[in-house]
Amino acid sequence: MPRPLIALDWGTTRARAVLISEQGEVLERRSADQGIQSVPANGFPAAFEAIAGDLRRASPHAAIVLAGMVGSRNGWIEAHYVPCPASPDEIAAAGMKVMLADGTPATILPGLSCDEGAFDVMRGEETLIVGLGLDNGIACLPGTHSKWALIENGTITRFASFMTGEIYGLLRQHSILSRLAEEPTGKDAARGMAKGLAAASRPGGLLNTAFGARSEVLAGRLPGGAVGPYLSALLVGHEIAGARALLGQSDTVHLVADGALADSYEAALAAAGLATQVTTPEAAFVSGVRRLASGISV
Amino acid sequence: MPRPLIALDWGTTRARAVLISEQGEVLERRSADQGIQSVPANGFPAAFEAIAGDLRRASPHAAIVLAGMVGSRNGWIEAHYVPCPASPDEIAAAGMKVMLADGTPATILPGLSCDEGAFDVMRGEETLIVGLGLDNGIACLPGTHSKWALIENGTITRFASFMTGEIYGLLRQHSILSRLAEEPTGKDAARGMAKGLAAASRPGGLLNTAFGARSEVLAGRLPGGAVGPYLSALLVGHEIAGARALLGQSDTVHLVADGALADSYEAALAAAGLATQVTTPEAAFVSGVRRLASGISV
Fold first, then answer.
1. How distant is the Cα of B199 from the closest Cα of chain A, in angstroms?
2. What pLDDT is recorded for position A139?
3. Tens digit of pLDDT for each residue in A250-268?
4. Could you identify which of A251, A292, B86, B209 might form a hypothetical disulfide with B199, taking C-beta atoms 3.0 to 4.6 angstroms apart as the criterion?
5. Same domain (yes/no): B12, B118
C-alpha cells in the first residue's frame, strides 16, 4: 500500500527535501544549506528536524528516505556501496535504518560502486538513474563530477565518472585562460560552442585544444566571450567520447539535467549524432525514491 | 668572426642572462626576478642594466641577444611571430633592434606561429629548439605549457602546445584531489606513476581517469602519496599521445629538460616505446642563441 514519502537528497553542501503524495505528486519542497559537512557527528537528527520537521508535521505517517552523501563515512551512518550490476531491489535492500529524534525510523540509501579495471563510486545519482525507469539505455547526469550509467534489463550494470564540471571551473577561474575570458554574448557563445565541439575531436587531445583557446584569442580569431563556451563544449565533447568508449554506443542518451546545463549537453550530444531524452533532476529523484521506497521493508 | 655574446632568456616572471665566450663557453650566469611583467613600459633599458650590466662591463664588445616574452606586445618591443615552416636564418632575420641606455644595439628574437587548423604560438622555445641543431626530429620542451616541434631539413615545420603543467598544478592544488594527495614516498611515487601511465591509455579519457584517482584512494587502492605522481604521469601520457597524433611518429624524442621533469618525461616516453635524448635548457639556449646570433646582421 503506497504511503506518502518524505525524501531528502542530502549532499555535501546542500539538502533538498520533498514531500511526495501517495500518487507521486510533490506537495512541498525545502532546500537548505545544511549539507553534511556542516552537521556535527551526532547532529543528524536535529539537522533533519531543521530541514524537514515541518514536512513531518504536515504528513506524520509518511515514510522517510534519505539519499546522497548522508550515507557516506562522514554522514549520518555509512551505507556501503552496492557493487554493480545492481538492480533497484538490491539497492533498496542495502538501505540502512537510522532513528529520528522521536524514534521514527528512516532509511538511508546506499551508493553504488563499479569495478571495471578502474574503481568508481556514486552516491545519490543511483536514485536518479533508477528514477528514469529504463529497461535498457544509457543515462547521463552532468555536473561537477558527471556520471554516465549503462542500464540493462532494468539493472545498472556499469557506470563512470567524469571530472568535467570541476575542470571547467578550474580552467575558467584559475588558469591562464581566465584572464582572456569575458562574459559571453549570445553570438560569442554559439561561436565558442561550435569551435569547442569541433576541437573535441582534434588529434592533439584536451591538453592541446584547451591551450588553443589562448592562441586563438591572442590571434584575434576567437572573442573573449567565446572562451567559456569553447571550454565547456570542448570538455563535454571529451566526456561524451569517453563515455561512449566505456559504455558502448546507443542512439539515445537519457539526460538528467535542466536549464543551461541541459541545453549545452543536448547540443553536444546532437553534435555527436545522439538523440536526447531529458528528465529534470527533481522528476528523476522523485520517481527513483518512490521506486526504491517500494522495495524497502519497514 | 665570432664575438662573445650576452644572451637573455627574458620571460614573464624571470630573466636569465649568460655571458658566452667566442668558443661557446658560459663564463657568467645571472638570474633575476625582473620578468617583463615587473618592468614599466619605458623601463627596459634600465632593467637590462640591472640584470646584465656587469656582464657588459666584463665583455664590452659582446653582441647582445634577447629571447622570450621580452619580444611580446607587453615587452620591450614587439617582434612578430615568424610563421612555420621557419628556418634558423628566417628566425634570425626577423629579430628587432632596440637600443640600450648607452646607445648600444641589441637584438630581440621573434617567436613562432603555427597555423594547422588551430593556431598556436611560442616565444623563447624556438631558440632552444634551434639549439638542438637537428636536421630532422621531434623536440619536446616540457613545462607549464609544454611545446612539441617537428624539425625537417633543419627547419621547424610544425609545433603544438599542451597545457600539461598548468592543469597538473590546478588539479594538485585546487581540485577535490588536492585534499587526498600527500607528499609521495619513493615507493608511492613509482606506484602512482605506473598507474597513471597505464590510465593514460584507458578509453574513458582524461576527465574520467583523473577522477579515478579519487575513487582509488577512497577504496584504499592508491595511497595518498601516489596521487600527485599518478596525475603527472596521466597528463604526460596524454600529452605524448596528442603530440604523436599531431606531429607523427618518431623513434626518438629530443627532450629539453633537466632534473625531476626530465626523469618523469623520460619514463613516460619510454613507456610509450620512445627513446629519449636529453639536452638541458641552458645548453639548448646557449647553442640556439649562438646559432641565431650568427644569422643576425649587425
1. 9
2. 98
3. 889 999 999 999 999 999 9
4. B209
5. yes
CB contact under 8 A, B207 and A118: no
Q: How confident is the model at residue A1, as a pLDDT?
A: 56
pLDDT at A279 over 90: yes
Distance from CA of B294 to the nearest CA of A (A): 30
Residue B234 domain-assigned (yes or no)? yes
Q: Are B145 and B125 in contact (CB under 8 A)?
A: no
Adjacent-strand bridge partners of A146: A162
Q: State the pLDDT at residue B1.
A: 56
B132: nearest Cα among B284, B25, B251 = B284
pLDDT digit string (tens) for B230-266?
A: 999 999 999 999 999 999 988 899 999 999 999 999 9
Can you give the pLDDT at residue B186?
A: 84
pTM comes to 0.94
Interface contact flag, A120 B206, Cβ < 8 Å? no
Specify the pLDDT at position A87.
98
pLDDT at A95: 97
Cell 629539453 sits on residue: B256
Which of A113, A162, A212 is nearest residue B211 as measured by Cβ atoms? A162
Cβ-defined contact of B208 to A121 (cutoff 8 Å) = no
Nearest C-alpha in A relative to B80: A219
Quick one: average pLDDT of A262-281? 96
- B206/A209 touch (CB, cutoff 8 Å), yes or no: no
C-alpha to C-alpha distance for A79 and A82, rounded to whole angstroms = 9
User: Does B171 share its domain with B120?
Assistant: no
Q: What is the DSSP letter of B143?
A: S
What's the gap in Å between the CA of B231 and the closest CA on chain A? 13
Distance CA A222, CA A192 (A): 8
Domain count along chain A:
2
- Are residues A246 and B208, on separate chains, in Cβ contact within 8 Å? yes
B210 vs A163, A199, A208: nearest CB:
A163
CA dist., res. B276 & res. B274, Å (int): 6
pLDDT digits (tens, 9 = 90+) for B94-126: 999 999 999 999 999 999 999 987 899 999 999
Are A218 and B121 an interchain contact pair (Cβ–Cβ within 8 Å)?
yes
Contact state of B215 with A171 under an 8 Å Cβ cutoff: no
Smallest CA–CA separation between A134 and chain B, in Å?
A: 23
Residues B289 and B168 in one domain: no
Q: How confident is the model at residue A66 (pLDDT cuts 50, 70, 90)?
A: very high
Chain B residue closest in CA terms to A169: B175
SS (H, E, C) B89-135: HHHHHCCEEEECCCCCEEEECCCEEEEECEEEEECCHHHHHHHCCCC
* Spatial distance between the Cα atoms of B270 and B253, rounded to a whole number of angstroms: 10
CATH number of the structural domain spanning residue B188: 3.30.420.310
